[in-house]
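Table S4 entry, UDP-N-acetylglucosamine 2-epimerase (Non-hydrolyzing).
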Amino acid sequence: MKIITVIGARPQYIKAAVLSPALRAFAQEVLIDTGQHYDESLSRVFYEDLQLPPPDYHLHVGSASHGIQTANMLAALDPILQEERPDWVIVYGDTNSTLAGALAASKLTIPVAHIEAGLRSFNRQMPEEINRIVADHLASRLYCPTEQAVANLAREGITRGVRLSGDLMDVLIDKTPDDPGVLSRLGLSPGQYALATVHRAQTTDDKESLEGVLQALSDLPWRVVLPLHPRTRDRIAQFGLESWLLHERIHILDPVGYREMITLERHAQAVLTDSGGVQREACRLGVPTYILRNETEWTELVEKGQAILSGVRYDEIMAAIRRASFVRPMRREVFDPVDCIVKDLQRRS
């Protein structure tokens, strides 16, 4: 069996690092990196930290509008898929790489396996929501991380090929030890800082929203560690908001590796993020999580009291901090997502 895996962004690198070794034990995996994380430091640090094998193809699509970036991916993927003629194409999550991989494969009648299927934020203004929906409706096998994701698909009439697999990210989180030196290198003590990440276009491309988040971070009762995404850094400069980064409580970092990030999450007093992956990781680790958005695709985290939707306005974020009440997760290991996905694909060889 030959499987092509399409990746291009942080959460996809993480999931591929968990699944790829098991895939390669029974199949030939061809790894394609679209280059959606066009900043070299962002992609290189994850390949090195996660010990991902180098991609067989790197598309180097770079930064562009959603339509142009997706079109560039499609144009590059089509000849590769025709040459390689895989039995399956695996896509992860909800990025433009997900959409392009699913669409390119479907046009060539190659079956698609969508990992992390069924998530819904119910906000179609988010590009990621469109990507999720299209990928799910194109996929032949849909591996859902939660029961809610299975129910979401059923409401859309998708029941065939759906499997409740659990979340690949949990596997890596649970077995990742601390980076023993990261806190000391940054002069941090456990439980004495907040960790923040901001990168979504809905926040970074709107000056008022971005300034509201930065102002709130500067007024938090904790020191704030902020690994700065290239998009966010560019928009801060474009909007003339650099003064917020000079605040004594905000500690700016370049992008960090996976193990460093998990260590920072694990020992934070709180995590504030607009990232789907980071909110999921922080809640898995039992850290109070403020989601810097008005909705989330991980609805269970809010319903179970593990996370709070804080929005992006200054007053909303500060109000969320004041009223916060969190419930620590009860770990119940039910799923082995690697085993579920691999055995299901093997039955289709």
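The CA atoms of residues 46 and 86 lie 26 Å apart.
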